[in-house]
Structure formats: C-alpha cells, structure tokens
C-alpha cells in the first residue's frame, strides 16, 4: 500500500469473537496511520458494542447530515469518524434485521469522508450480516484480523479469515493482542496464556503476521479515557506504529 492519492480505500478490522481487542486495535491503528502521514477516517461498524466514540474521545459529538450524507465527527488528533452508536439507540440494535443493518453500514461508509485515503472499519465480531454486507457491497482493499493467543479465539479467527478469502478481499495480516502480560511496575512481559499462537496461525493461513500487543493495564486505562496509547509516546505507541507501518507497506 502506498501513500499516493487514490479514492477512499477500506481497511476492515475483524475478529472471530468479541473481547479480543478489535476495537482497541482499530482506534490505535487509525491513530498510528494518521501519525505516519496518511489521511485516515474511522468507522465503528460494531453494532452490538459500539465503543469508538469512547475510545476516540468523541462521545459528546453528533454527526450532521448534509445533502443526505453524514458528516463525520472529530476524534483524537482530529481523525474523522462515525459510529453505529450515532445511528441507533443503545440496546435497540439487536432487533435489527439484515437489510436495516446493511443500510446503516452504507450510511457510515458512504458519508462525506472528504480527502480521506484510508477508512479503518471496526467490524462486529464473527461473520454476520455486517461482515457480508461489507465484503459484498463495500469491497475492502484489505482486512486485518485480530486474535488473542488462546486457541478458541484463533479457531474463530480462521472463520473470519475464510469469509474475506471467499470474497477475494486481500489479507493484510494478523495481529496477536493480549499477547503476554506487561507488568505495570517493571514492564516485564510474562505469558500466562502462552505466546506465538497467532504467529503460527498466520503461517498456517499463509498470511502476514503484523505484530503483537501485550495485555497492559495502561492500554485499557488510556483507551477507556479516550486517549489511546498510539496517540502518545512509549513502547505501546511504538508497537502500534510498527503494525501501522506494516499495514502501509
Ligand atoms: P473487541 O472490540 O474485540 O470486543 P475491545 O477492543 O472492546 O474488544 O477490548 C475489550 C476490553 O479489553 C476493553 O476493555 C479494552 O480496553 C481491553 N483491552 C483490549 N486490548 C487490550 C490490551 N492489549 N491490554 C489491556 N486491555 C486491553
């Protein structure tokens, strides 16, 4: 992937199951790509647990519609973003049928993204209506899969991989999140769940391994506070930047 100006390209961030850090990775990846000089936008398509407004510190903003298109709100570092949470009332989304879900996704993707080059799309976990709509209607330029080292998450991740593969969406690569525990006192990484599972799985699936992010209290704290670590300095920011660099290469 190059920095030359092209129409908006979609980078889908997916996982086989919830709670593996897909939203955390999406926000930090968008910020890291922005800091590398790309014009980045962020879509929170996770209808079941939209969290990007909190992660990106934009909870108090509301998008407006101009000429029947939504105008994104502004997240951390001025990154334009839109969330399913802007379109649905909390708790109501689960009753939506496929066409409504797919229509809502269309409103987010076809919003007024201006000169945005890369649209990072945080998908819901699994392989449901939104993922299908994403690959069939919106043709992502690539997909990043997030997994934890545990086997179950990896097995689920391979299902997500096959959904994109069947639709001909190129695999950008796999990220192992919560990979080892970073001690908040000394920074030393220990491996309560083992490590390297995702790297081995990436090899099996013949896709690039993009890197690992440790389980670190600082990542959760800063993310909850709407100030993701990729926006600051330090080892976590470096790790997200290295992943963004591989995505951009
Ligand atoms: P998903 O989008 O896959 O459901 P989230 O990104 O919402 O997962 O993460 C689930 C929870 O785990 C959140 O509270 C988040 O702050 C936390 N989390 C995610 N990645 C890490 C990490 N590397 N270290 C510590 N906490 C993390």
TrEMBL record:
One MF annotation (Gene Ontology) recorded for this entry: ATP binding
InterPro entries found in the cross-reference section: Mrp/NBP35_ATP-bd, NUBPL-like, P-loop_NTPase, YlxH/NBP35
Residues noted as binding ATP in the record, renumbered to the chain: 16-23
Signal peptide (from-to): none
Family of this protein: Belongs to the Mrp/NBP35 ATP-binding proteins family.
HAMAP family: Mrp_NBP35
Matches recorded under PANTHER family: IRON-SULFUR PROTEIN NUBPL (PTHR42961:SF2)
Subunit structure, interactors included: Homodimer.
Function field: Binds and transfers iron-sulfur (Fe-S) clusters to target apoproteins. Can hydrolyze ATP.
Listed name of the protein: Iron-sulfur cluster carrier protein
Organism: Sphingobium naphthae
Lineage: Bacteria, Pseudomonadati, Pseudomonadota, Alphaproteobacteria, Sphingomonadales
């Amino acid at each position: 992937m190059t920095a030359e100006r092209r129409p908006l390209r979609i980078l889908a961030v997916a996982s086989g199951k919830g709670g593996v850090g897909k939203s955390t990775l999406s926000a930090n990846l968008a910020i890291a790509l922005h800091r590398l000089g790309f014009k980045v936008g962020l879509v929170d398509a996770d209808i079941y647990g939209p969290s990007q407004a909190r992660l990106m510190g934009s909870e108090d903003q509301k998008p407006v519609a101009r000429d029947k298109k939504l105008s994104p709100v502004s997240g951390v570092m001025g990154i334009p973003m839109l969330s399913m949470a802007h379109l649905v009332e909390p708790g109501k989304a689960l009753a939506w049928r496929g066409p409504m879900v797919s229509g809502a996704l269309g409103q987010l993707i076809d919003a007024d993204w201006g000169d945005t080059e890369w649209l990072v799309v945080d998908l819901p976990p699994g392989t449901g209506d939104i993922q299908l709509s994403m690959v069939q209607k919106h043709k992502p330029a690539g997909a990043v899969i997030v997994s934890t080292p545990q086997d179950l998450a990896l097995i689920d991740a391979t299902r997500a991989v096959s959904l994109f593969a069947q639709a001909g969406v190129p695999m950008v690569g796999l990220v192992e999140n919560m990979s080892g525990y970073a001690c908040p006192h000394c920074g030393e990484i220990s491996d309560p769940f083992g490590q390297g599972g995702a790297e081995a799985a990436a090899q099996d699936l013949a896709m690039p391994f993009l890197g690992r992010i440790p389980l670190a209290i600082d990542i959760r704290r800063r993310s909850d506070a709407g100030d993701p670590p990729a926006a600051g300095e330090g080892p976590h920011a470096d790790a997200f930047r290295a992943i963004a660099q591989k995505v951009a290469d």
